[in-house]
């Protein structure tokens, strides 16, 4: 009899006995379904997630080696240190230029997942091996990917509104969840619950320990949901949409609240606890500070261009900054009190900010289209960015922790650690 793994027990996944065979290595292209490879819009031979040499265009940071130490037109005057070019660039053919999708995620086990067309590919940062996890076939497509915190299982949101759960080690689908009427463009895991947001305007919460497709439905947005993030304590879920409104949902009841003042609702309410209405364009970029509880950062689209900071205890806006261009993603550093933002129209740049001063540390350029995708390495030092220019670029932007904890995968350091500061 096959013994359940610790994570299988935790998630309550009833995996079939046929999954007890030898796991597929990450350097092999896998199959799914009945064992035959589904037709794909791309062949693995077409440089998928392979290293490339950047062209020396006029806006490329590679245009001249001497520009790295001298004046550069793509650096703002308040940038403290000239940034280095990306350490690695990978080809990502068919990476979509769609603001509302979330197609890149980096697992705690050091594996990058990328949705390309109808397929999800896994790239191991340890050895650069590429695996095709799945192909959804000619009538569906990948809209979002998100690893569990442990990094063994990955959820995939599809154009048809499904949420699929896959074992990333065995390359096997273990569950398919319904409930959405149309594409599922954003996913977010906390320790046990998966939240999914859709163009149908709804947020569903899924519990892998129960048989139902979802356990609750959160209704508050008036248009497509494109941003979802759980707070670090798993108590609150922040969501952003195209209705120019960010909403905040609690996952546990709060004591001694005053509804009129705080607009905080218990977990049984279908209404948001807070309505943060300062943004004037779609809110996709959302990130909770790992350094200060109840501190939420959010970024607005082309008509807004601002990063705003909120105290979610009382709903007050603490500060904001106009970045000058569409804010596509936000991520706090877990090593220092800084955050990184990626941008679209009109500058397609990446910026690093200090908090709470909001002083700009660096501006990075290189993508030729808006930088729609962002993920961070397990050690918090490297980010990967993706754009419709069909490239993934790795940047070493944050320092190591002062008291670093051991990492299981020492090959992570193979990415190189040339800092921008």
TrEMBL record:
Gene Ontology MF terms: anaphase-promoting complex binding; ubiquitin ligase activator activity
Superkingdom of this protein's organism: Eukaryota
Name of this chain's protein: Putative transcription factor WD40-like family
Ranges of the WD repeats in the UniProt entry: 218-249, 364-397
Recorded family membership: Belongs to the WD repeat CDC20/Fizzy family.
GO cellular component term, pick one: anaphase-promoting complex
One BP annotation, GO: protein ubiquitination
SMART domains: WD40
CDC20/Fizzy WD40 domain sequence ranges: 90-395
Chain residue ranges for the region called Disordered: 56-88
Biased composition (Polar residues): 56-67
PANTHER family from the UniProt entry: CELL DIVISION CYCLE 20 CDC20 FIZZY -RELATED, PROTEIN FIZZY-RELATED 3
Organism name: Lupinus albus (White lupine)
């Amino acid at each position: 009899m096959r013994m359940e793994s610790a994570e299988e027990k935790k998630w309550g996944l009833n995996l079939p006995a046929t999954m007890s065979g030898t796991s597929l290595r990450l350097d092999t292209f896998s199959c799914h379904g009945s064992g035959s490879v589904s037709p794909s819009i791309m062949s693995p031979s077409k440089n998928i997630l392979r290293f490339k040499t950047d062209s020396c265009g006029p806006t490329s940071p590679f245009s001249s080696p001497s520009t790295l130490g001298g004046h550069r037109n793509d650096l703002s005057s308040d940038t403290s240190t000239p940034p280095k070019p990306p350490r690695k660039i990978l080809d990502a053919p068919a990476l979509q230029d769609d603001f509302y999708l979330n197609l890149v995620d980096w697992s705690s086990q050091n594996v990058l997942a990328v949705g390309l067309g109808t397929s999800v590919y896994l790239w191991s940062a340890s050895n650069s091996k590429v695996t095709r996890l799945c192909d959804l076939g000619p009538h569906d497509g990948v809209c979002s990917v998100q690893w569990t915190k442990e990094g063994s299982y990955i959820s995939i949101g599809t154009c048809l509104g499904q949420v699929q759960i896959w074992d990333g080690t065995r390359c096997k689908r273990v569950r398919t969840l319904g409930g959405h009427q149309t594409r599922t463009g954003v996913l977010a895991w906390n320790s046990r619950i998966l939240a999914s947001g859709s163009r149908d305007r709804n947020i569903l919460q899924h519990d892998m320990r129960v048989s139902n497709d979802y356990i609750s439905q959160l209704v508050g947005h008036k248009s497509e949901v494109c941003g979802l993030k759980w707070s670090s304590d798993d108590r609150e879920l922040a969501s952003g949409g195209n209705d120019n409104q960010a909403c905040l949902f609690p996952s546990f009841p709060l004591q001694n609240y005053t509804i009129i003042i705080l607009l905080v609702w218990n977990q049984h309410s279908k209404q948001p606890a807070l309505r943060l209405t300062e943004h004037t364009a779609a809110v996709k970029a959302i990130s909770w500070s790992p350094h200060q509880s109840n501190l939420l950062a959010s970024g607005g689209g082309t008509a807004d261009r601002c990063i705003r900071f909120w105290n979610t205890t009382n709903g007050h806006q603490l500060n904001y900054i106009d970045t000058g261009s569409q804010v596509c993603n936000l991520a706090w550093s877990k090593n220092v009190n800084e955050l990184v933002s990626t941008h679209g129209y009109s500058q397609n740049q990446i910026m690093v900010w200090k908090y709470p001063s909001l002083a700009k540390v660096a501006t990075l350029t290189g993508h030729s289209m808006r930088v729609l995708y962002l993920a961070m390495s397990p050690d918090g030092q490297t980010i990967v960015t993706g754009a419709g220019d069909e490239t993934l670029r790795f940047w070493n932007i944050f320092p190591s922790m002062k008291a670093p904890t051991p990492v299981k995968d020492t090959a992570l350091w193979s990415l190189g650690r040339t800092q921008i500061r």
